[in-house]
Design brief:
heterodimer; A: 320 residues; alpha/beta; four-stranded antiparallel β-sheet; 32% helix; 24% strand; globular; B: 326 residues; eight-stranded mixed β-sheet; 11 helices; 25% strand
Chain lengths: 320, 326
């Protein structure tokens, strides 16, 4: 039985007038049904482009250069656009960060959700409506039959995100990609939405890729965690292991810089410098310019992923 | 007790908004009877979710918009009774740092001119003296000399925030209102800016009103904290009082909603149900009663609980706090 998703050597570049930007540079990971893997990193690290690549939604000047995206053993990177359309929104769904931009403002939310059901599951308009109302009930929308005919602007941010989740889950996908699903929401609403996603995941047994910059969300929700920096996964392990025993200097730096890990008012530990421009990433390790333990090799040669403990992978010269 | 640097009493601000197809005018109570004080050298953290009135308070205290009722005192003088000269020096003493380092800097001005402009406006320096002061400020906030002649778009978010901080510091203010100064920044940059703000506070004996929705950041920065909900302060007190011995169910829910970074320690979570009500049509009685897990009718739905001092220096606006949390 093949893994639900296996990504091997995924490389996605953007061909800009200033040069070629490797937004995703040789990303490998896999995911089983019913599991959550978190992809964590700062802006520009390639976490969203990884998701867009899996969905085959990278638009020119972006291009998937190489790599395999095996979904239930079938390589998505070789499929035609038509074949991809049958998968998108059907067996793989995605939730985006900003609920307003992923909903059509001039269509009622109910008909947007029903549209997918009619397309992918061949339901009649009447059946799709009944099914949609049932899904709205499941995602916790009060009086779902009345909300069916509402437009997105009539709802709060949390309600809209529930609608987006309802739309993503309508066709019972086997893989859900959630790209910063709660970043635009308030913290009490965030807790509701994360609980909802977990609940839906448990009842359907789908796999979940959770993309976020919030380490707290990762700690609570994901079984495995991939830390990304400058287009590459720099550390991958069981979530408890990552938090207990971070190995990569970037992961350590991130965890140490959290205000939760410092006494109130005391100086926070910091990572010097700033996230590199992807056009000027050094040929070797992308983190070397900010790294406290760098050596002469780091800048010149690219470290590879090495197993530093059971299932704990790290991309750092110190562990080669 | 120190004399307060800034004090607001009964502060309220309404906005008229048009809604519906006929543009019916309705009253939005953005800030609804808030008392605040900030002592010299202190950081007061203001936390709450979107629409709770945090940013309206910032604009009121800056004197950018007048209050609908209530008063603001700065160093013993009422803001609305200040004359021209007094207002001018008030505008020097109270500076602001904004959330978005992209829209708060003029894209057509060079960095050195952005930082130096307040010096010119307040007639504090000119010519080579001004240039020297700008270089000093840039060094203080961690910018290099060669950045002087560059434009904002050449900088990352964190460095732009440093430019905004240098501009605020230029006129030696007494107080800085920082409205979500780190929430637009990447995690590894956030810590740098937090440390910078703390160092500058010590060096220039500043007072901060620190507005943020990230509770871990608020806790780290603040001496005292006020939690807002729907235009009102629902709890206020010292940092450890509010975080460790909270007296309001909203504070409890807010703290419980923050994801913890220790994966094993997944506590029973109190998930607040429902949405934040609209400030156009706020609930009767306690504004929090629609989401409160402990609500008791008719007490909570009919009577608005006043903000009372429950312990020395620790205030809460809840009918049930004595029973629930003690």
């Amino acid at each position: 039985m093949p893994s639900l998703l296996k990504v091997i050597g995924l490389t996605t570049s953007f061909h800009l007038p200033q040069g070629i930007v490797r937004a995703v540079d040789g990303v490998d990971f896999s995911l089983e049904s019913g599991e959550t893997v978190a992809i964590v990193g700062e802006s520009g690290c390639g976490k969203s482009v990884t998701a867009y690549s899996i969905m085959r939604l990278v638009m020119p000047p972006g291009r998937i250069e190489s790599g395999e995206i095996l979904f239930e053993g079938r390589d998505l990177s070789g499929l035609s656009e038509k074949e991809m359309q049958e998968i998108r929104g059907n067996s793989i769904s995605m939730i985006f960060q900003e609920p307003m931009t992923s909903l059509n403002p001039v269509m009622t939310v109910g008909s947007q959700i029903a549209e997918g059901l009619m397309l992918h599951r061949d339901l009649s308009k009447y059946d799709a409506r009944t099914e949609t109302i049932e899904i709205l009930r499941q995602v916790g929308i009060p009086s779902p039959a009345a909300r069916f005919a509402d437009y997105p602007h009539q709802m709060s941010g949390g309600m809209r995100q529930r609608m987006v989740i309802a739309m993503a889950l309508a066709c019972q996908p086997r893989l859900l990609i959630a790209d910063e699903p709660t970043t635009a929401l308030d913290v009490t609403i965030q807790a509701q939405i994360l609980e909802l996603i977990d609940l839906m995941k448990e009842s359907s047994g789908m796999g979940l890729i959770l993309i976020t910059h919030d380490l707290g969300i990762v700690a609570e929700r994901a079984r495995h965690t991939a830390i990304m920096y400058a287009g590459r996964i720099v550390e991958y392990a069981n979530t408890v292991e990552i938090f207990r025993n971070p190995l990569h200097p970037y992961t350590r730096g991130l965890l140490d810089s959290l205000p939760q890990n410092a006494a109130p008012g005391r100086p926070l530990s910091t990572i010097p410098g700033h996230v590199p421009e992807l056009l000027t990433v050094p040929p070797g390790c992308g983190f070397c310019d900010r790294c406290p333990i760098k050596e002469w090799t780091c800048r010149e040669e690219k470290p590879v992923m090495k197993e530093a403990g059971a299932g704990h992978l790290v991309r750092c010269w110190k562990f080669q | 007790m120190n004399d307060p640097l800034m004090e607001a009493t009964g502060l309220a601000r309404n906005f008229t908004v048009k809604s519906g197809a006929f543009g019916t005018k309705k009253l939005l109570r953005a800030v609804d009877g808030v008392d605040l004080r900030l002592d010299s050298g202190e950081t007061l953290g203001l936390a709450g979710e979107s629409g709770c009135g945090k940013s309206t308070i910032a604009r009121l205290l800056m004197g950018l918009i007048p209050p609908s009722s209530g008063s603001i005192m700065f160093r013993g003088r009422r803001l609305d009774q200040m004359g021209r000269n007094e207002i001018f020096s008030f505008r020097k003493d109270v500076q602001m740092i904004f959330q978005d380092p992209f829209s708060s800097l003029n894209p057509r001005m060079r960095v050195g001119d952005i930082i130096g402009e307040p010096l010119t406006i307040h007639g504090l320096a000119s010519g080579t003296q001004k240039q020297r002061m700008v270089f000093d400020l840039m060094e203080k906030v961690g910018l290099a000399k060669e950045h002087f002649a560059r434009y904002p778009h050449e900088f990352s978010g964190g460095q732009r925030q440093r430019i905004g901080i240098a501009r605020a510091l230029a006129v030696s203010p007494r107080m800085i209102i920082a409205d979500e100064p780190v929430s637009a920044l990447d995690l590894s940059i956030q810590a740098q800016i937090i440390n910078l703000l703390q160092e500058l506070k010590r060096e220039f004996s500043l007072s901060y009103l620190f507005i943020a929705h990230d509770l871990s950041v608020v806790r780290h920065m603040s001496d005292r904290i006020a939690i807002m909900y729907l235009g009102r302060i629902v709890e206020a007190g010292g940092r450890e009082d509010v975080f460790g011995r909270f007296l309001h169910p909203y504070t409890e829910g807010l703290l419980s909603a923050v994801p913890r970074i220790v994966p094993e320690e997944r506590k029973k979570r109190i998930v607040l149900q429902g949405d934040i009500p609209s400030p156009i049509d706020p609930p009767s009685g306690c504004p929090f009663h629609t989401r409160c897990p402990y609500v008791e009718t008719p007490l909570c739905t009919e009577a608005t609980p006043p903000l009372l001092e429950k312990e020395p220096g620790h205030l809460a606006a809840c009918h049930l706090s004595d029973r629930l949390f003690r």
